[in-house]
Structure formats: structure tokens, C-alpha cells
Specification:
heterotrimer; A alpha+beta (507); B alpha/beta (401); C mainly alpha (393); B: 401 residues; GMP Synthetase, Chain A, domain 3; 2 domains; nine-stranded mixed β-sheet; four-stranded mixed β-sheet; 13 strands; C: 393 residues; mainly alpha; two-stranded antiparallel ribbon; 16 helices; 2 strands; 74% helix; disordered C terminus; Spore germination protein KB (chain C); membrane (chain C)
Chain lengths: 507, 401, 393
Amino acid sequence: MSVRLRRRYKQNKQPATNVHDHISPHAMNNFHQIMKRTGESDDILHRSFTFPTTNTKATLIYVDGTVDSQAVEKILSRAKFYSSKNDESYQSYFNEVGTTKLHTSIPGILPELLSGHVVIFIDGETSAYSVSLLKMSERTITEPLTETVIRGPREGFIESLRVNTSLVRRRLADEKLRFEPRTIGSRTKTKINIAYIEGIADESLLTELRQRLDRIETDSILEDGNIEELIQDATYTPFPTVYSSERPDTVTSHLLEGKTAIFVDGSPFVLIVPALFVQFFHNAEDHTQRADIASLVRLLRFGAAFIALLAPSLYIAITTFHQELIPTRLLGNLAAQSEGTPFPTFIEAVLMEITFEILREAGIRMPQPVGQAVSIVGAIVIGQAAVQAGIFSAAVVIVVSLTAIASFVFPSYSMASPFRILRFGFMGLAASFGLLGISVGFTAMLLHLSSLKSFGIPYMSDLSPFVYSDQKDALIRLPKWMMKERPKTTDHQDVERQHTRKPSPDR
Amino acid sequence: MLMKRLSSGLLVILSVLLLSGCWDRWELNELSIITGMAIDKSDENYELTMQSINPAEIASQEIGNGYAQSFNTTEIAPTIHESLRKHVNKSPRRAFISHLQVLVISEEVAREGITNILDFFYRDHEVRSDFFVLVAKDDQRAKEIMGIVTPLENVPSQNMFDSLQYGARSYGGTRIVTLDDLYQDATAPGIEPSLMGVTVVGDLEEGQERSNAEKNTPSTTLLMEGLAIFRNNALVGWLNQDQSKGLNYITGDIRDSVGSFTCPNSQEDEFALESFKERTKYDVRIVNHKPIIDLTVDIGAHISEVNCKDLDLSKEENFYLIQEQAEQEFVATLQETVKEAKAHQADIVGFGQMIHRKHPTVWEQLEDNWAEEFPNVEVTYEVNINITDTGNIINSFSEDD
Amino acid sequence: MRTIAQVSPRSYGFLVFYATCSTALLGLSTSLTSFLHQDAWIIPVVASLLGAGVVFLYTVLARWYPISTIYEMNDQIFGKPIGTVFSLLFLSLPVFHFPAITSYSVTFIQNYTLPSTPFIVIAAIGIGIIAFGIFSGIEPIARTAELCFVFFIVPLLFLIFTTSPLIDIGFLQPYFTSSMFDMTEAFSIFLGNVISNVVIQLTVFPKYLAKKKAGERALWTGYALGCLTLTIITFLCIAVLSPELVAVDHYPAFTLAQEINAAGFLQRVEATITVVWFICIYFNLVLYFHCIIIALKHFLKLTSVRTLIPAIALLLVYLADYYFNNIAEERSFYQYVSVPHSITVGTLLPILMVTVGIIKRKKHQAPLYPAYPDEATVYKLHHSKETKSSKQI
């Protein structure tokens, strides 16, 4: 817990001027002062006790539920064995139970008290002790819900910062792994750790990240999404420029590639910067499966991304502008389906897409048993009734379903959203200008993507600027023995990664 | 500031989307997909017949009402494009001609010249140049050919398209001429276009009836036969089926074909060769300032049918006999073809083009009155048939066995 | 933060590649074939080799002034007043050709896909997307060029490989029958439309490239690839479509794409092949726009021109709309204005610049073909430019 020494408090900068800020020699006065400041909050408890040898009264204050109550009992029960009289010994005595710090003002104590410390006031002392006994009720480590794998570790991050860092530390027992603390949020005082490997992570990137974190002036950081929105490079973009992961192994592998992770207390997601476009198409499974299938699956994902983005718009463009592109017999079939359908193809597709988005949102938010009912209704509404009633043509339903399935292939949920949003834009363009509209929209998208940067690194790196050596783990994945170097885009220092030669029985 | 920028941006996007809307948008159910066109002459005007498919009837899954699979409308106007657009007067949808598969020109129109027609089809953006062009033979009206309903393929234009396409692959008597080919032949120096003929066999009235498609032996069918010969882009005569095949051999436009030849040892009996691997080479010699064209046709063939008596195919020399016999008959066919073309002064073979390519200076002198010079061009023929196989059996069944 | 955009050499190579192809990829074979008939394919081969000499002049200029655009080069070679005149002459190239090419491309789009959509609407969205590119800056543009490569090369190779079985060598015969006069005329078309067009690269190269030496290599690679593509497409057009057809066809490469028929089912895909022309023309127009913007920056001594971009874009939309009254006018523009004008700006002007430059440098005994300074020096030069540029020769 020594790293906490570097913590900076705004309150500490201002000298305590108010008379009530001073710690009173009467322990109970301090308690009343604190109760006054916290508005007599119900969860703040106090226990008075005496050091029998010196007959000194003391008051122990803590927030119920945030500290280890057994440890509190331990402090109380061992008080009678306390014998020495000087300050030093109080501290060393409490240190036996938990990390203890000395405070001289009430405002300095409050944040400690509210974040899982036990505060002890001793009669006759003008300073107080805070003992770190944090023990919140926390979730057990479970399998992550968002990034599931068939083969690979089943551990996911939980809401506790310390547990999360420990999960990474367990995988990366390197002395160079650093966890740099920050506290952000004037009211929430959320604890944040910046994790990186010294010597691999780019120093200028770290400086930039620290600056951006220090620039944040907000009252609250509730979870990682808040941080992401406050530190990202471009704000007016649907594309995520910060990567978030629920998996310790993913975070570890990114740290090893010279990236930086941000742990936020209270969130089971860890942010990783810089984030590159291709990275959102990678999955932990890519590295646990064999290289060939992993590569093919990656290519499949890029293909699915195209489908998710463009399938409905291409359908609209081709069937309403470029009918000559369709083989004659297929055109006959498509035309037969659209006989008697009342809406233009564009309206049909938009309505279907919106229906699908509603179903999807309902399916996520509903409790699971209801969710099933939603999907049944959806399947009947979309799949059958609408076509049979002659409202929609079957081909549109096929296209929209294909799009929907393709949009579930994204390994990263945050990358699926821009594609969902842009899909509608492309549909509009396709309905106005056909393939020209799609080309124009696509060019605009590429220009936008090219102008994006994530912490100074071009977002489209690996693809443009094309880094040949990084292709080992970008569009495809090569076997591990071929990845002798770290990616060039994010790492410039300790480039060499391994010397393992190609495995062969002769060696 | 930001909100202002966002809202103005949104306004621009919205207005673009809303205002543009539908300049060029045509829903599938607003289009009538034209697959066939027929051009006849009616007084001074063009009579354009268009065949559109009826999607509800043609689709495999949809259960239609059992109506006809295609729908013909006829319009008369002085230009082709006008009659095309007038189509909407008789049909509820806009004519969409990108999927045109067959264009049938009546002989009457073809005799007047096809330059006008070429101009429209090349100028219009919607037309693709990969459809087949045919001439209605035997004074049939092109319009009537579009109305013949036959089994297997109920849409006449599709019927003709497939027949031509697969015919060229398996028999070689038909000649595929797309608009592109036609344009090339019509404009290139030293070659004249030739177009496939189509006619109706059987009773015309009955062929228009739906019942025609319901019979085992339909009373009326379409027949792809003969080649129309053009001179200065106007029709001047016809080649028969054998001559058409000969032309295909000379120009190297044949893939796979079957031909019957008389047996070397008896004049009554015949054998058949299935030819493949056809390759035509030509050379142009200048003798006494006159061009002589040497044609060499190399053919690889199988024996596919033998009716010859007492011909032992297990002997090598009999193979040569057969080859020689076939070669002679082949040369005769080729000569026949060229003779017919020369008779019409129509260089459909492209001898002029051959001279132009090999001896451009000689061509410059001949070019101006090529039509007169063409019949005087001397041509030598060399046909090499290489029979490699006799099919699954060697000798024919004979009474002796 | 570095203020000068750092275009990577590889991205830049793609940019040159596209800009070299430009509209020529779509229509060059027509103008060449109308003069030379079946011999037209020779011109791209011979002319691009000869054109290398012109491109060499550009690299000489770049080596002399590794941190300048052509406008600044003019000032430094001819001095401020005369240099401004020549800069204005150079500026006339993009100003004259931007609307012309826009008009040509929009007409193409109207002809084949959107016949009833008003000209101005297509021009507006086209120029809108160009302006958006300029707004993002030259660096994202170059990166986009690199990203677009896959959408460019796949259809292009598809076009080449599916049409090459249709080649009929007979269409190329007889060989070499054209007169010298026709050859020269066709050569001048190629020189004007393709080679001289490369001069617009001098507004990007060498100033905006981080690695000048690699940038020069990229310029050569892009030019070579562009010329190779043009040669292949011209050859294919003639050998597949016949010279007679190419000579009358407005967009022969598009007609070539109509011939695609792979395995019987991949046919009728020409509308998807148009992406090739879209990319080429897009990046060429972006570079023209960039030339105009850089010129404004130079002449008006502005630090940022971003606010001017929408206004100029609007002007160009209207200019494009009113540029030609009809297709005949457009044809005569390309015949009588475009070619001589491009040759003046793209070939004669650089020759003059290099000639004057050589005389000046001889006098100062400066090296005539200096090596590029290394990256650190370049960085320093860029940042002390205001003080130093006047002292440079």
C-alpha cells in the first residue's frame, strides 16, 4: 500500500483554516464533528474503547460494510495489551492490523474513512490514525459475459480494482509492470490505476495519458465509460478510440505489446490505449486456437463487418438503381417477390432494420425468460407474418437477417455500434444515389477513419500506414514462433520479443 | 456553436436525402423487364414489339395465376427510342431493356439496312451490348416470332437465347452474334456482318396458343437456321445450315460440332465425326499484285457414328481413308460457303480484313472497290482432320459377328 | 506537435498512382485510338518512358527545394514578382481542369447510372466529399489512398484477368502503320493528359513528405504503376473491343468492363468496376483542390485555409455546372485547350524552372543534383522556414 503515498489530494494543498478542521484532543468531539459533516449518516459507526495500561480513551470510526469487521474486533480486543506511550508505537501497533497513516486534519481523514479505512481518534492526541481495512462485499471471479471463448481462460474482471490488478499481476510477474494510482472525481473519488510495462510502453504515450487524466475535472467517475469519454482523442465520431476488455489475458497481452491499461475501481472493464481499428476485430480466442483457423476467422470477421455495414444499402442500390447487375433469372425471382409489396425497398429495409433494432434492445434489457418470448414474437413478426401478409418482400427479410447475424460477429460490442449507426446512413445514401451514394459514403468513412488518432497513433495503423511486419497479428494471425517482434506501431523500445525458433523435432 | 454546426449539418444531409429521393430510383415492381425485342417495318415507321417477362409467373417459388409468362406489346413510331418509351402506353410499367437477350429484326428491315438500329442500341446507356441479334427468315414478321409459345421455355426470347447459346456449344450450326460483334463487323474495314436467321416451323396460329406448350409434339416450334449475309449493312442473301457451319469453321467460331460424311468405301453409307479443338489459320500471299488467301483449318475429331460396311477401323490405313474423305468434304463445304458469299459480293468471311492485317499497303488499293474485287480473290483451302478416337467401340456391329 | 503534415512514402505512392491514372484510365484509349487505330497501345509504352524525363525534372526541383511547394519554388527560382506570374500560370492548371474533370466524371455517372439526377446534385456530393478530404488534411487523404488500394486493385485485376482471355490479336494487326504525324499528335495527348498532370504532385512532394528520399521513390513507383495500368487498359480495350469500337466509344474502359464474364455467373458487374475510376478521379480531383488551397495559402499568406474550403467548393460546383454547354464543347476543350495548356504547365514550365535554376546554381556553385537532407535537417528547415527560405537559392 506504499504506492498510496503518491496520491495527491486537492484538500491537502489548502491549509486547514477552519477551527473545526483541527483534530480535537477529545476523541468523541472528533466523532461528533465527523457525524456533523456526514449529516449523521446511518452507516457510520463508532466504537469507543480504552487502552487499559494508560487509561486513554479512544474512538474508532468506520463505515459499516466497507471494512473487515473481524479486523475491527482485533483492534479492540488487543487494545488491552498495548503498553507503550509514544506516538510511534500507536502507529506500529495499528500497523500490525492494517496499513496505518497519520492525519492531522478532519478533511484529510474523511476520504479515507469513506473508502474503507478505520479512523481512530485517541484522547490527548491532535492527530488521528487511519487503518486500511478495506473489505467490501465483492462478486466472485466469473466468466466474462462479453468476450466468451471456447478455449482459453475463463476469468473475467470484477468490480474491485485490487482484484483486477491482481489478476493481471498473476499473469505478468514482471518487475517492470507498473500500477500508477490516480483518484479522479471530486465526489466519487474513484480510484484508478494506470498499468504499463516500463521499458516497453512508449514514454510519450504515458505522459500524454497522464496529462489527459489529470485534465479531468469532474465530480464523478462511475465506471470506465466515463473515463473513456473524457480522455478519447476524437469526440465527434461513432468509432471507439479506446479499447475496453473484460479479460485479464487480453489486457496482459496488450500490455506486452506496449500499450497502457486503465483500471477503474467499480468497473469490470479495463480500458486499453492506444486502440487501433484492427484491434477491435481481434479476440482472445485468436491466440488460443491454431493460427490457420484464427486467421480465417479474422478474415471472416472483416467480411462480416462489410456485410453488417453495407448489405442492406447494397441491396437497395442494386434493386432500385442498378437492376442490370442482377442476373436475369434472379431478377425475375426478385421482381416476383416485390410484386404487390406496397412500400419502396428503402422504406421496407429501414422498417425491418428498425424492427430488428427494437427486438435486439428488448432482448438485451428484458429478464431472460421474457427475452425468449420477445425473440419468438420477433421471429414470427419479422420472419413469417410480414412476408405472408405481403407487406415486406422475402428478399428484404433475408438481407436484414443476414445483416443482423453479421453484426453479432463483432468480437467487440463497442465496434458493432458505429456499424449499426452508419448502416442507416448508407441506406439513405443508397436510396438517393445508388452505388454512387455508397461509394461517396464509404470514402467519407475512410477519410474519417484515416483522420482519427488514438493517443497520437493513427487509428487505421497496420492497414494505413501499412506496416508490413505488423501484419503478423493484424488482418490475420501467424503462429507465435513467427512473431519475433512486438508491433512497431505501439512499441519502439524493447522490440525483440522472443528467440524461439520454429518448432521442429530435430532441435 | 456545436449545436449550430450539428443542426446545420443535419439540415444539409436531410435536405439532400429528402430532395433527391427518387430521380433515378425504379422499384422492381415499377419496371417491366424486357428480354426480347422485335423490329418490323410498318409503312415508313418502325414497329417495335417488346417482350417483357411476367415475374409472378416465371419465379420458381411463387404460385402464379397460370397466366402467360411473357407479355408482348407493339408500338409504332418513326424512331426506335420513341416506340420504346411509348411502350408504357400499353403496359403499366416502364420498359427496362438492360436485360435484353434477343433482338429479332425482320428481313424487310434488314434489307433496308441496320445502321439506324445499331446507332440507337449503341447510343442508349441502358442497353448492354451482349444480347444476340437475329433476322426473321422466310418473310416471317419478327413480331410473330416473339409470340410462339414452346414447351420447356415458355418465354420465346429466352428460348431463342438458350437455343443459340447451347447450339453454338454443341452443334456449331448457329452463329452467336452479339451487338458488339455486329458493330465490329459493320464498321471494321474488309468484313461484312452476318446474322443468324430464325423462323417458325409449323402453324403460326397454333404456335401463339398456350396449348402449343402443353403438347408432347408441339405443332409449332422456332427454328434457328441459316445466316443472313449483309453488304453495306443491308441484307442481301442467306447461307444455308451447312454453309453457316462452313463460315464458322473459317472464322474459327466453333467449339464443338458433329458432321456427317460419306464412307470412303461406299457412296450410300455415312459416318459421323464429332469435332473439337478447331483452329483456323490464314495467310495472305501477294502474287502478281493479287492477294491469295491460304486457309488452314486444323480439326481434332472423334468418330462418333459409323454406318460404313466392311470398314475395319482397327487398321491404321482406314483411319487415313476416313480422314481424307472427311477432309475433302470439308473443303467442299468451305468452298461452298465462300462461293455463296462471293455470289452476293458480301465479304462476310473477312478476307478484306485478312489482307488489311497482313498487307496494309495492298489493302489501301483494294479498299475502295472491295465489293467488286472480293469475288476475284483466290482462296486455297487446307483442312487437316486428326481423328484420335473411335468412341467406346472400335468397329461397327456387322452381320458377321 | 509537428505542424507540417507527415505523409508516409507508401501512402504517397498510391496517391501518385491514382492521380496518374485519373480520367485517362476511362477515356484515354478513345483519343489515342481515334488517331492511331490499332497502333494506339504503343503510345502509353513509349510515352511513359519518354515522360520519365519530365518526372525527372520534378525530382530535380524537389532535390533543390526539399521543403517547398511549386509556388515557393517559383518564387525562389524567378524571384518574387516573376515567380508569382509563373505560380499563377501553374494555378491555372487545377483551376481549368478541376471543373472540366468534374464535368466529365459527372457526365459519365449520369450516362450510366443516374440519368435523371441533376448534374449539380451529383457534382455537389462529389465535390462535397473532395472538400471533406481537404478538410481532413493531406495526411488523412494519403492514408485513405492507401486504404482504398484494396478496393482499387481487386476490381482492376479482376477486370484485367477476366477480359484478357477475350484478347484477339487480330485487332492489333497490321502493326505500325500509322503516320509519324498521327503518332506525334497522339503522343502530345498522352504528354498533356497523363505525364504533365503529374506536375500537381509538386504541391505535395517534397514538402509534405517526412522522408524525402523515399518520397521520390514513391513518386517514381506511382508514376510507373499508373503508366503500366494505362498501357494495360489501352491494350485490352483495343485487343478486346476492336479499334473501330474504341474510337467511337466515349468510355471505352467501361465498355471493356461490360465484357466481363467470369465462369458464366460473374457478369454484368461493370457498375462495381466503376469504383476503380471513382477512386482514380477522386484522388486526382483532391490533389487539384489541394493545389488551389495551397495556392491561396501561398498568395494570401494565410496560416489556415480551412474556413475557405466550403466557399471554394461551392464555387467549384457552380463552375463545373456551367463549364461546358454540351459534349461537343467539352471535346474541343480537351483537344484544343487541355492538351496545350497541360503541356505548357506540366512540361515547359518545369523545363524553364530547371534551366533558370541550373544557371543560378552554377553561378552559386551549388550542386546540380543534391542529395536530400536527412530527417533531422528537414525538421529544422521546416521550422525555421520563414527566416531561411529567402536566403535559399
